[in-house]
Amino acid sequence: MSAGRSKIPILDRKMKEDRDYWVSRLSREIEPSNLRLDFARPATDDGKTGAVELRLPDAVYRRLSKISGNSPELFYAVLLAALKACLHRYTGCGTSVIGAPSRRSGSEAEEPNVLVMLDEISGSMTFKQLLLSVRETVLRAFEKQSYPFDRLLNDLGLPEARNRCPLFDVALAYERLQPPMPAVGNDITITFRDTEGGASGVIEFKESLFRRDSIEHFAGHFQNLLSEALERVDSPIAELEMVSDAERHRLLVEWNDTGSEYPARLCIHQLFEERASQTPGATALTFQEEALTCHDLNARANQLAHFLRRAGVGPEVVVGLCMERSPDLVIGLLAVLKAGGAYLPLDPSYPAERLAFMIEDSRPKVVLSHERASAALADCNANVLCIDTQWPEIAGESTDNPRSNVSAENLAYVIYTSGSTGRPKGVMIEHSSVCNLALAQISAFHIT
User: Fold this and answer.
1) Helix H or strand E segment including 96
2) DSSP alpha helices (H): ranges in 144-267?
3) At what angle do helices 327-338 and 294-310 cross, to 10 degrees?
4) pLDDT for 180-202, tens place per residue?
5) How far apart are alpha carbons 138 and 119 in whole angstroms?
6) pLDDT of residue 7
7) What distance lies between CA 354 and its chain's CA centroid?
8) What global pTM score does this model have?
9) Cα–Cα distance for residue pair 262/338, rounded to 1 Å
């Protein structure tokens, strides 16, 4: 690394004091910034950088100048505190580590050094509390700036990496106070300079890690947070607003404008009937070696639905489904909906007491099952219909779509919570909700 290479073989007292300060301060496990990258970090830095301009609004510059009292050190400390607050809001890291060039000296020949600005930070701190901490960090760092950065890395046992700086990812400099930031491999360097009647900055970033629009987004957040912090110095960092009114509208209004037209008056089984009439020969389901077309599945479900209708199943009537995964499970589910009822899934592997509770609580008119699975219902007070043994009778019913007078506001199914925090609770879902969800998922996942 080029920054601050020392030619002094023996440390004098001042340099030893500076070394002891830095080693004691940095001899700990320091969290990385955790700033989310747009691209995976390459093994070797290619050196290509981009730049985004950042100009402080006049009102922000005036407040910043007033609070700093024309002191370049305090001006820098305010910028640094705002940057730390912004990065904390991005990452949640409790230890903030930002790099900085050493303070300018009177000697043109003196090579600039690299300093490490470390502070503890939390969202509950007020900006004033953070600023006082950062101000002390800045002044102490400038007092101890003589110890060379490359020696410090060696003392800390941090090997030089080819793709990043081992101590920090982000650096901040202020031209009135400091020389340009030496090249030490950090990902982002922000440099502020005085302009006529104001101040502006430039954010230099590695193009191998970040997209330009990500850095532009970050620049806006930093500027907004700085403005908020200067107006509300006694507010917690977590409450300082970073997003602009335009971005807030985009996040809360534009991106949530997801309304779309869907057949709100149709029931979920009617959507399937529509599909079955359009593509009767399409495969509707497969199970092991068995396959059913849309036409066959619809016809079998219709036969069972007519059978259930004659058994008293209609709108708002609950019907249990207690069988292992099989085509009959899907046939039963569709048949309950076509009959106008609401299905209740009952896993035969559930404990007997759970099944008994769910049946007692929901009081289903009938429970559809298989002869083998029905053993799980032995201790339940339920009217069990084994569709495998009674299918010859069911097969005599009509294959036409039944008319059940069920509407989109009627129940489609009842499902119970896990009961992990107490007794299971039944949740009742209407057809309109299922249709809305199903059609949204078909669109989102491009289901054909």
Assistant:
1) strand 95-101
2) 149-155, 212-231, 245-249
3) 60
4) 999 999 999 999 999 988 899 99
5) 10
6) 47
7) 35
8) 0.61
9) 20
- The phi, psi pair for 26, rounded to 5°, reads -110, 0
**What b/e string do you get for 123-157 counting C-beta neighbours within 10 Å, with b at 16 or more?**
eebbbebbbebbbebbeebbebbbbbbbbbbeeee
CA-based nearest residue to 211, from 37, 427, 21: 37
Q: What SS3 class is residue 380?
A: coil
CB 266 within 8 A of CB 303: no
* Mean of pLDDT over the chain: 89
CA separation for the pair 270, 274 (Å, rounded): 6
- What is the model's pLDDT at position 13? 85
The token duo for 128 is 């004033």
In angstroms, what CA-CA distances link 172 with 74, 200, 273, 330?
A: 14, 13, 65, 63
Identify the CA nearest to 434 among candidates 201, 269, 295.
269
Coil, helix or strand at residue 343: strand
| Range 233-236 contact pairs with CB under 8 angstroms and sequence separation of 24 or more | 233/67, 233/126, 233/127, 233/128, 233/131, 234/126, 234/127, 234/128, 235/126, 235/127, 236/123, 236/124, 236/125, 236/126
**CB 353, CB 361: distance < 8 Å:** no
Q: For a pLDDT cut of 90, what percent of the chain falls above it?
A: 66
Radius of gyration in angstroms for the set of CA atoms belonging to the chain, rounded to a whole number: 35
Residue 4 has pLDDT above 50, yes or no: no
Burial class (CB in 10 A: 0-12, 13-18, 19+), 447: exposed
